[in-house]
C-alpha cells in the first residue's frame, strides 16, 4: 500500500489470489457457495424509494427516473442474443465497478454523468445526452 493511501486512512483489500494463498481458501469457497443463491435478478425500488417516477428494465440494468437524475441498478442477470439466460452472483457488482473504473480513468478527457455510488450495484447519474459509442 502506498504511503498516500495510508495517510488518507484507506486500507487495501487483499486480492482473491492473496486470500486463496493465505490459508483462507476454504473460507473463501464457503462464502462464494453461500452466495450462489443470492443473485440480484429483479429490483423494485419504485415501491420503496420516494420520488422514483418510472422503471426501465434493460438486459442487465434497471433504470429508475427521479426527474433530474437516474438511478442505475446493475443486476446479476446474464444475457446473450438479447435474452436473459440466468443470474450469476456478483456479476452486477463487477460490471458496475468496471464501468466506474473506466469513468475514473477517463475523467481527465471527458466528464461522466456519475454523481454517486451508494452501493456496489448502484450508480446515481445525471441525465445527459448519450455519446453513441459501444465497446464489446
- Shape verdict: globular
Largest sheet: 5 strands, antiparallel
Cross-sheet strand order for the largest sheet = 1-2-3-7-6
Summarize the helix and strand pattern as letters.
HHHEEEEEHEE
What's the gyration radius in Å? 18 Å
GO molecular function: ATP binding; phosphoribosylaminoimidazolesuccinocarboxamide synthase activity
GO biological process, one term: 'de novo' IMP biosynthetic process
Pfam family, one: SAICAR_synt
GO cellular component, one term: chloroplast stroma
Describe the protein in words.
This protein is an alpha+beta fold and 136 residues long. It has helices at 3-7, 16-21, 25-35, 91-105, and strands at 54-57, 61-65, 69-74, 77-80, 83-87, 114-119, 122-126. The protein has a five-stranded antiparallel β-sheet with strand order 1-2-3-7-6. Strands 4-5 form a two-stranded antiparallel ribbon. A hairpin with a 3-residue loop joins strand 1 (54-57) and strand 2. The longest helix is centred in the C-terminal third of the chain and has 15 residues, at 91-105. Mean pLDDT is 85; it is low at 1-7.
Amino acid at each position: 500500500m502506498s504511503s498516500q493511501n495510508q495517510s488518507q486512512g484507506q486500507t487495501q483489500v487483499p486480492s482473491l489470489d492473496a486470500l486463496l494463498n493465505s490459508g483462507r481458501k476454504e473460507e473463501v469457497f464457503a462464502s462464494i457457495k453461500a452466495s450462489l443463491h443470492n443473485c440480484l435478478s429483479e429490483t423494485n425500488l419504485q415501491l420503496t424509494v420516494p420520488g422514483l417516477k418510472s422503471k426501465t428494465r434493460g438486459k442487465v440494468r434497471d433504470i429508475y427516473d427521479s426527474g433530474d437524475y437516474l438511478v442505475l441498478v446493475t443486476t446479476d442477470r446474464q444475457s446473450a442474443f438479447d435474452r436473459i439466460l440466468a443470474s450469476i452472483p456478483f456479476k452486477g457488482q463487477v460490471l458496475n465497478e468496471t464501468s466506474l473504473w473506466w469513468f475514473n480513468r477517463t475523467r481527465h478527457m471527458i466528464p461522466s454523468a456519475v454523481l454517486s455510488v451508494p452501493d456496489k450495484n448502484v450508480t446515481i447519474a445525471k441525465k445527459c445526452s448519450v455519446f453513441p459509442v459501444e465497446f464489446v
